[in-house]
Amino acid sequence: MTSADLINQARLEYEVSRDLAKLRLNKVAARLAYIAALHAATAFILEHTGTVDDAHQSMLAVLTRLLADSQDDKMIEQFLARAVKYKDVASGDAGAISDLEVTVTLYEARQVIERIANLLGASSTRLDLRSPV
Question: I want to staple 40 with a disulfide (CB 3.0 to 4.6 A). Which of 10, 64, 109, 131 is the partner?
Fold first, then answer.
């Protein structure tokens, strides 16, 4: 899978997470939004290193190193560090996720995906940026 494939996958997952949020399936929507952003981060790491570690902490460390010179891109690593709590949401450990929380999560995930796509110069279909939900 190429970095462009991963960006396209992230965008598709984001769109599905948006649809899930409209159905008020907040836990599933937040989890998929996190996964979408993680796939975008994976694309960035793959493009710059040629390899990717599946462990979240390892990926976050590599991403932090790759983005070290850019203060503007701190939001990428901050979102991934904060949103990892949604990863295991299916197990019921996350508790309830409010409509506001899922809306903010979707908004931030979208920002991460598009920022990484811009950094990579991805020219495939852009996300609809009008509304997070």
Answer: 10
Non-local CB neighbours of 117 within 8 Å, separated by 6+ positions: 7, 11, 40, 124, 126
Nearest partner of 113 among 132, 94, 99, 97, judged by Cα: 132
Q: How far apart are CA 58 and CA 73, in angstroms?
A: 18
Q: 20-24, 43-47, 65-69: which has the minimum mean pLDDT?
A: 65-69
Domains and CATH numbers, the chain: 3-120 (1.20.120.330)
CA-to-CA separations, 112 to 6, 60, 73, 90, 95, in angstroms, rounded: 13, 14, 9, 23, 24
What are 63's two structure tokens? 């991403």
Binned at pLDDT 50, 70 and 90, residue 51 comes out as confident
Longest Cα–Cα distance of the chain, Å, equals 40
Supply the angle between the helices 56-66 and 74-83 in degrees, to the nearest 10: 170
* Residue 92 pLDDT: 61
| C-alpha distance from residue 106 to each of 25, 103, 112 (Å) | 13, 5, 10
